[in-house]
Amino acid sequence: DSIYVVVTPNDGTEDGLPVTSSTVTAVNTEPTLAAVSLTPDPVATNGIVTASPSGGEDADGDSITYDYQWFVGGVSISGTSASTLDGSVHFVAGQQVHAIVTPDDGEAPGLPVRMSSTTLRSGSET
Fold first, then answer.
1. Three-state SS at 65
2. Handedness of CA 54, 113, 41, 122 (dihedral sign)
3. What is the residue-averaged pLDDT of the chain?
4. Are 92 and 73 in contact (CB under 8 A)?
5. Which residues pair with 15 in a beta bridge?
6. Which pLDDT tens digit goes with each residue over 9-18?
7. Given the DSSP bridges, would you call strands 84-86 and 48-54 parallel, antiparallel or unpaired?
8. DSSP symbol at 89
9. Distances (CA, A) of 91 to 19, 44, 49, 97, 115
10. pLDDT per residue as tens digits for the range 18-66
11. What percentage of the chain's residues is helix, strand, coil (to nearest 5)?
12. How far is residue 99's CA from residue 109's CA, in Å, rounded to a whole number?
């Protein structure tokens, strides 16, 4: 955004000539994310896995939201933007699962962070 101000002096009776300040540009700093953890680890094929971002910061003080992109067996799972993924729908034993999480401050996304993969185990017990 470009910001400037116009000031019009007034002596209580009459306006003087308006003066326009120079223009400054307000800059947004992209949010950052330190890490993403996966719980539980290992995960069972009929369990629910959760990606938990940590160390998210925004130098401008904006609130941060996160976008989640899940991968199972190296393939992106479409329609998954939540922090959890249901194994009963998406997993098969022996596959690897991971997520890429991108912080966003509402003005611009930050750099995506990839969490470590884990191998899926069959059943409900880890």
1. strand
2. positive
3. 88
4. yes
5. 10
6. 999 999 999 9
7. antiparallel
8. H
9. 66, 9, 10, 8, 17
10. 999 999 887 889 999 999 998 888 888 888 999 999 999 999 899 999 9
11. 5, 45, 55
12. 16
68-114 pLDDT per residue, tens: 999 998 899 987 778 999 988 888 888 888 999 999 999 999 999 99
49: Cβ–Cβ under 8 A, 6 or more apart, which residues? Answer: 38, 39, 40, 43, 84, 85, 87, 97, 118
Tokens representing 84? 């959890």
Residue with the two structure tokens 């059943």: 123
Measured CA to CA, the distance from residue 4 to residue 36 in angstroms comes to: 41
Query: Residue 7 corresponds to which tokens in the numbers above?
Result: 């000031």
- Which position has the token pair 């116009």? 6
- Output the six-digit token pair for 123: 């059943």
Q: What is the pTM of this model?
A: 0.74
* DSSP-H helix ranges across the chain: 87-90
Give the tokens for residue 63.
């609130």
Total residue count of the chain as it appears in this document: 126
